[in-house]
Amino acid sequence: MDPFEYCYNWTSPSGQDAGVAVPKMAVHFAGAARLEPPGKSYVIDAAPGVKCIGLQEGPWPGISVIGNILQQEHLWEFDIKNRRLRFQRSRCTH
């Protein structure tokens, strides 16, 4: 389903998504840092009954973007002066 490459029919008899396992994903950064977001941060509703892995390929070389949905449930610090990105899981849901 354009623009996503990996999409799946996603229906259940009850109409609920609870209990459906999705593959775990990790984004690896320099210095051994890893972002391991929950499935709801990268499996998105694309159409009724269709879910997609919400990642898109970009040109290389180029700029990579970590979108707002993938950033959810984490606290982020953008240290421009020292050129550092820091993050940690958050219990905050708002």
Automatic annotation (TrEMBL):
Transmembrane ranges? none
For this protein, the record's SUPFAM superfamilies field holds:
Acid proteases
Question: Would I find Heme among this entry's keywords?
Answer: no
One GO BP annotation of this record: proteolysis
Q: Which residues form a coiled coil?
A: none
Pfam families (UniProt xref):
TAXi_C (PF14541)
Q: Which superkingdom? A: Eukaryota
Question: Per its record, what are the GO molecular function terms?
Answer: peptidase activity
Q: Which keywords are on file for this protein?
A: Hydrolase, Protease
What's the protein name?
Uncharacterized protein
Q: What is the lineage of its organism?
A: Eukaryota, Viridiplantae, Streptophyta, Embryophyta, Tracheophyta
